[in-house]
Amino acid sequence: MSTITVTTWSLEQTSPDDLAAAAAAEGDVRIVRAEVPSPEFSRFLYTAVGGDIRWTDRLSLTYAQWREQLDRPGTETWVAYDKGTPAGYVELQAQDEGSVEIVYFGLVPAFRGRRIGGHLLSYATARAWDLAERWPGLPATKRVWLHTCSKDGEHAMANYQRRGFRLFDTKVEEEPVVETPGPWPGA
Question: If you average pLDDT over every residue of the chain, what do you get?
Fold first, then answer.
C-alpha cells in the first residue's frame, strides 16, 4: 500500500481579542446556523466540501453515529449560502474546560477563491467565542482551536493565521493513500 507524508498543524486562539475578522463576503452571502441536527445534511456538507481533499474519517459512520456527533451539547453547524446555495460550512464542538474546536471548516470547490472562506471563518470563530451564550450550562469559551493539514487547500493555513490563530503543535505522519472520495466517484 502506498503512503503519503501528511503534516498536521494545530492552531489556537486564547482570547476573543485574538480574532482578526475578515471583511464580509461580497454579494448575497449569508451564514446561517443549521439548528436542527441532520445527519443527512451534515454528511452532504462533509462530502461536498471534503471530497476532493480526502476527508474520510466520517465516511464509515452510521446514521446513528452521525446523529450522536451532532446531538452533543455545544455542537453547532454554521452554513454559508451564496444566493441560497450551500457554499461551505463550519462545525463547532464544545469540549472540556471551555475549549471549543472548529472540527470541520471548508468550502465546496466551486466557491473557493471568492473570499467567502475568510468571512465564514471569522463569523464561525466569533460564534465559537460566544457558544456558551446559546448553550446554558456550558462554561464560557476560553480557547478556540483547530487543526489543518497538508492535504487541505493551499490557502487554509494562511487564512487561519490571518484570522489570528497561532500555531501550537506540528505532527508529521505517514498515511495510506486513499482514492479521492468526492461527493460521488470521480468528482
Answer: 93
What letters, b where the CB count within 10 A reaches 16 and e where it falls short, cover 123-132? bbbebbbebb
Spatial contact of 57 and 65, defined as CB atoms under 8 Å apart: no
Q: Decide: 16 and 129 in contact? Cβ < 8 Å.
A: yes
Whole-angstrom distance, CA of residue 105 vs CA of residue 92: 9
In three-state secondary structure terms, 25 is: coil
How far is it, in rounded angstroms, from Cα 18 to Cα 16?
5
The 10s digit of each residue's pLDDT in 159-171 is 999 999 999 999 9
CB 122 within 8 A of CB 90: no
Q: Which residues contact 6 (CB under 8 A, 6 or more apart)?
A: 149, 150, 151, 172, 173, 174, 175
Q: Are 137 and 98 in contact (CB under 8 A)?
A: no
Half-sphere exposure of 102 (CA within 13 A, CB side): 27
